[in-house]
Design goal:
This protein is of the alpha/beta class and 320 residues long. 38% of the residues lie in helices and 18% in strands. It is built from 10 helices and 14 strands. It has helices at residues 11-22, 55-58, 75-80, 83-102, 137-156, 185-193, 221-234, 253-264, 288-294, 302-319; strands at 2-6, 26-30, 46-48, 65-68, 107-113, 159-165, 167-169, 200-203, 215-216, 218-220, 240-245, 251-252, 270-273, 282-283. Strand 5, helix 5 (137-156) and strand 6 (159-165) form a beta-alpha-beta unit. The radius of gyration is 19 Å and the shape is globular. The protein starts with a strand and ends with a helix.
Length: 320
């Protein structure tokens, strides 16, 4: 297929682009490089350095589909300054959808998020049928796009799939996390293991969980990218489907810390801090729909996630 990947120079986008290119697809990456990296684009793909509103100039009727990953994605930043989130995540996507409609491109896979669910009412795995009640502008903007896709499917025959990620980590094919600022737990713990920073902070040790720390669902980026390829094959004209993507279980902050110490062989000092406002005790994905309808199965566990992320981090240290 001939595909446009928006945000293909970012963390997830780089791995998705690599898998698509290695599978023989013709890939054009559209990325403004605000958060992405030029060297994260697979050499077999074509990079167009521009924002989403340039999609009208990039797409044409020869394209078979779009994988839409470009977005602003920092929860705290979205609370402090929501305007750019609505502008990019919703306004930019609107421009992309109109470009796709104009050129007759009717296949789209969208990078959504577990933040659309907000604070879950229980510790049970979240299902796609659970209420979506986001608590921040980032999650709200992503949910708005889900609603847009449903409307375009009904009105214009678009075939769309929204993939709601939980906690993505790890590295694959030489591509990994290089966020600035870095807000994710595993890369921040690895920064401590490498000696880059003296310690990490555990936010909250009094949650109603087995060890008092919050539980999250971790998914290897390679498993996540595989789901995008499967979703492209399962898109159906005139329909919009939503799938949760997670590792199929949960790990507490202390369990992740133990895995980082085990994999790296370093002590990884931490200090304990208070809970962060709005952080639920447990956030775990129910992934049965993806298993049944996409034939998808997460295959890499926590130690492999940490090991691959550690190898990527160490390779970066060598290159510097």
């Amino acid at each position: 297929m001939k595909l446009l990947v928006t945000g293909g120079a970012g963390y997830v986008g780089s791995v998705v682009t690599a898998l698509l290119t290695d599978a023989g697809h013709e890939v054009t990456v559209l990325d403004a490089l605000h958060a992405g990296h030029r060297d994260a684009v697979h050499p077999g793909a074509t990079l167009v350095e521009a924002d989403l509103r340039a999609a009208a100039d990039v797409l044409d009727p020869t394209f078979d589909g779009v994988v839409h990953l470009a977005a602003r994605s920092l929860v705290g930043e979205s609370v402090e300054d929501p305007g750019p989130y609505w502008d990019t995540n919703v306004g930019g996507t609107l421009a992309l959808l109109e470009a796709a409609r104009t050129h007759g491109v009717r296949r789209l896979v969208f990078s959504s998020t577990a933040a659309t669910y907000g604070d879950p009412p229980s510790d049970a795995p979240l299902r796609e049928t659970d209420p979506a009640m986001p608590t921040n502008p980032y999650g709200a903007s992503k949910l708005a796009v889900d609603h847009m896709l449903a409307g375009w499917a009904r009105a214009h025959g678009l075939g769309a799939v929204s993939l709601r990620y939980f906690n993505v980590a790890g590295a694959h094919l030489g591509f990994g996390e290089r966020h600035d600022p870095e807000t994710h737990l595993i890369p921040n713990l690895l920064r401590v293991a490498s000696g880059e920073v003296p310690h990490a902070t555990v936010f909250g040790t009094d949650y109603p969980t087995s060890d008092g720390t919050a539980v999250r669902d971790y998914l290897h980026v390679a498993d996540l990218a595989d789901a995008h390829l499967r979703a492209l094959e399962h898109v159906a004209p005139g329909t919009h489907r939503v799938f949760n993507l997670g590792g199929g279980g949960g790990s507490s902050v202390r369990e992740v810390l133990a895995a980082v110490r085990r994999v790296t062989g370093h002590p990884v000092p931490v200090v304990e801090g208070p809970r962060r406002a709005g952080d639920p005790a447990v956030l775990v994905a129910g992934v049965e729909r993806a298993r049944q309808e996409l034939g998808w199965e997460p295959s890499r566990g926590l130690d492999e996630i940490v090991s691959d992320a550690w190898a990527f981090a160490r390779a970066g240290e060598v290159s510097r």
